[in-house]
Amino acid sequence: MHSDLTITDVRLTPVLVADPPLLNTQGVHQPYTPRLIVELVTADGVTGVGETYGDTKYLELARPFAERLKGRRVGDLNGLFSLADEVAVDASRVRDAVDVGGLRGVQSADKLRLSVLSAFEVACLDALGKALGLPVHVLLGGRVRDTVEYSAYLFYKWAGHPEGVAAEPDDWGAALDPAGVVEQARKFTERYGFTSFKLKGGVFPPDEEIAAVRALAQAFPGHPLRLDPNGAWSVETSVKVAEELGDVLEYLEDPALGTAAMAEVAARTRVPLATNMCVTTFAEIKEAFTRDAVQVVLSDHHYWGGLRNTQHLAAVCRTFGVGVSMHSNTHLGVSLAAMTHVASTVPNLHHACDSHYPWQAEDVLTERLTFQGGTVAVPDAPGLGVHLDRDRLAALHRRWLDDDGSLRDRDDAAAMRVADPGWQTPPTPRW
Ligand SMILES: O=C([O-])C(=O)C[C@H](O)[C@@H](O)C(=O)[O-]
Ligand SMILES: [Mg+2]
């Protein structure tokens, strides 16, 4: 085959995607969330697509990265890492604190770079797969399962965004107590067939969240349950919750903030601890694994630096007897396809992956990916196996263009201030 896989054009399309009023410990989701769609075009006219965070700090890096990509080949995946190193990160973008709108550990320049690189890596793999007539999972070594299991990602939520805020309505209703959480879980099972459940916690005092998980355990006996307060609890509170829910939890996710606190909790409970906050980079693995601070790492190909880095992470976890699964943040179908391809290739993936996708009624694809029995079938068409719907992409981009800038950077605390003007990001531990 003599196809010319040189990248001749790169298109960056920031979009704003409708998001329901989902609550977390920092605040509430904005009515629209920024995402970035990346397209690479090769000399032969093959287009590859990727997706990542769309906030300004990612766009700032994606633009120079895109310029540097032109003239390179889509198969040069290793070269992406040296290219990323060349892109300067504005120091003001890197704060020694948990991300204001993503709850995915401490921000660093490298993590920002990797979060951008990952979209280009996925787009390269998509283009390569299309050019070769092979699905992305084959380029990653081949799938070891035909379907990938996802869990129902339950959130406390309001019925709607605050009055006066422009937003798309949703049909999920409010969920602010145990009965509301169980009802939401039932909708998830009816609509998508999910059989395991994760509740986003850190929103209400721990006793209320314990009651919600107990109610889930009663409504869905024997089903895997997780609770994730995003580091909102002290070590003592974490241990207490672990004791009270030890008989029903598959794992407790990031009960306390940071490796030291997680190690202390882990030493005092038999409930496995999972994280997408204290192990978010390769550099954080050694200390966490040495201290036995976490038993499951939730990879996220966006900030771990792509699909191949996710496989590397899984191999490290396997070596150390640590479990692996996948974290998610608000995302569209391009990312769900990428997650599904890589998850299908990881032999040691024994927990259902997270996905926000059911919360996103909007997408940029001609055909949405579907969950059946809580699983997504691994696409076998060339590349990611998805196609962009240009009209939808243009409409979501138009929304981004029309925004006055207030929604272009996700900030859950700012969104909460619309309803509660005195709201500040709560200090941790909150309880
Ligand atoms: O597992 C997690 O920590 C997440 O999914 C982080 C997200 O930011 C979640 O808290 C959210 O969407 O509010
Ligand atoms: Mg989490």
TrEMBL record:
Its EC number is 4.2.1.40. InterPro entries: DgoD-like, Enolase-like_C_sf, Enolase-like_N, Enolase_C-like, GlucD-like, Mandelate_racemase_C, Mandelate_racemase_N_dom. Residues 178-272 form the Mandelate racemase/muconate lactonizing enzyme C-terminal domain. SUPFAM superfamilies: Enolase C-terminal domain-like, Enolase N-terminal domain-like. Its cofactor is Mg(2+). This is glucarate dehydratase. Transmembrane segments: none annotated. It comes from Streptomyces bullii. Gene3D superfamilies: Enolase-like C-terminal domain (3.20.20.120), Enolase-like, N-terminal domain (3.30.390.10). It holds the Pfam family MR_MLE_N. Belongs to the mandelate racemase/muconate lactonizing enzyme family. GlucD subfamily. It catalyses: D-glucarate = 5-dehydro-4-deoxy-D-glucarate + H2O. Keywords: Lyase, Magnesium, Metal-binding. Pathway: Carbohydrate acid metabolism; D-glucarate degradation; 2,5-dioxopentanoate from D-glucarate: step 1/2.
